[in-house]
Design a protein that fits this description.
There is one protein chain. The chain is of the alpha/beta class. The chain has two domains: 151 residues, Rossmann fold; 189 residues, Glucose Oxidase, domain 1 (3-Layer(bba) Sandwich), CATH 3.50.30. The chain is built from eleven helices and 18 strands. The strands form four sheets. An eight-stranded mixed sheet has the order 6-18-17-10-11-14-15-9. It is globular, with a radius of gyration of 19 Å.
């Protein structure tokens, strides 16, 4: 794996930029209140100064039609020496459209905290190619702007990851979880979502413990970036630990299916009215095996699926894919607290991690920042 540059740690009072690199939800009239709520939480709970880039709040219609504006915001944030971190507002479905306008040399020459998840996986892969260790973690609209209050578990691990230069250490499962969907309307802002007791991590297969460097993201987005110029080299997966989570699209365990794109903004770079495929977990993982990726990695951590739909079926699909490529021995830890369920911890790309099957534990053995 590449030797990635760690970003300097954040300190109270630092200036961080917010960016809308995919969906423009932060600037839409109906949901803009949520942006200001998330911004206030970042400033009050983390002690940071939040600044918007020129197009952060331009709205969905404009940003869908102007991917270069989104890319310009990312480049501006990396280039500005007064900005110490960059937080993604939300994911979406077409972050890949900014790629032609990204200067990887700018990212490499200005290492700083970059954090987000979901479709932001694409931007993380851009950072990875540039040689920067970015942070797969909370987004402003979904996590920092959580109804009533931000989960303390999420807040703790954000602070631990972004502000602390000590090794992150063992990360226990979140005590509760939630993926309940409440409309982002002001009438719901003081309505707490239904958080339920969580179970611990599960060992799907494997024994003992393995260590490796972290690489992954949202599985569907990672899959869609295969064979693009930002796909990591296959050799970089040697002895790595893959981390994957699934989106609110809730991909089926085995069979893929097609649908017609109805959004004017398109979906994963495809235009409105075209056919798109929702791939199943099994064929996506088998494709990774076809490319030789699953044969190289040391272990896999897989997040809790949204609404726990296909909770057991995903386990079966993972095992079937690994058996298919001769990896029945690979340690796999399941029901991990990151991704599209709340609360969540953060994963630094390239960070040295450990999966311990005997103890059912997951640890990050070094700091994410310097």
């Amino acid at each position: 794996m590449l030797s990635l540059i760690k970003p300097p740690r954040l300190r109270p009072g630092d200036k961080v930029a917010t960016v809308s690199l995919s969906a423009g939800t932060a600037g839409d009239a109906a949901t803009n209140w949520r942006y200001w709520q998330g911004k206030e939480r970042i400033e009050q709970r983390l002690g940071l100064e939040v600044v918007e880039m020129p197009h952060t709040l331009a709205g969905s219609e404009y940003l869908a039609a102007n991917p270069q504006a989104r890319a310009d915001d990312m480049m501006t944030a990396f280039s500005d020496p007064t900005i110490k971190g960059i937080f993604s507002c939300i994911g979406g479905s077409d972050a890949i459209k900014v790629l032609p306008y990204i200067d990887l040399a700018v990212i490499r020459s200005n290492p700083k905290v970059f954090m987000g998840y979901s479709d932001t996986t694409t931007n993380h892969l851009m950072c990875y190619k540039a040689g920067l260790s970015s942070i797969y973690g909370p987004a402003l609209l979904s996590d920092f702007a959580e109804n009533v209050a931000m989960p303390e578990y999420t807040l703790h691990w954000v602070k631990r990851t972004l502000f602390d230069t000590e090794p992150i250490g063992e990360i226990p499962a979140a005590p509760t979880w939630c993926s309940q969907r409440l409309d982002w309307v002001t009438e719901n802002k003081d309505t707490a979502r239904n958080f339920q007791p969580n179970t611990g991590y599960e060992v799907i297969q494997g024994i003992g413990s393995v260590q490796g460097r972290l690489i992954g993201g949202c599985l569907e987005v990672f899959f869609d970036n295969l064979d693009t110029e930002i796909q990591p080299p296959i050799s970089d997966f040697q002895d790595a630990i893959l981390f994957f989570e699934t989106s609110e699209m809730q991909p089926p365990p085995t069979e893929s299916y097609q649908f017609t794109i109805t959004s004017p903004a398109g979906w994963f770079g495809l235009a409105q009215g075209t056919k798109a495929t929702i791939w199943g977990i099994l064929p996506m993982l088998q494709t990774l095996a076809d490319k030789g990726i699953l044969q190289k990695v040391a272990g896999l951590v897989f997040a809790k699926p949204v609404d726990q739909k296909y909770y057991y079926e995903y386990q079966d699909a993972i095992q079937e894919a690994l058996a298919w490529c001769g990896r029945k021995d690979m340690p796999v830890l399941y029901n991990i607290s990151f991704g599209h369920c709340e609360p969540k911890f953060c994963l630094p790309y390239g960070g040295l991690a450990e999966v311990n099957c005997a103890n059912r534990t997951f640890s990050i053995l070094e700091s994410a920042v310097i």
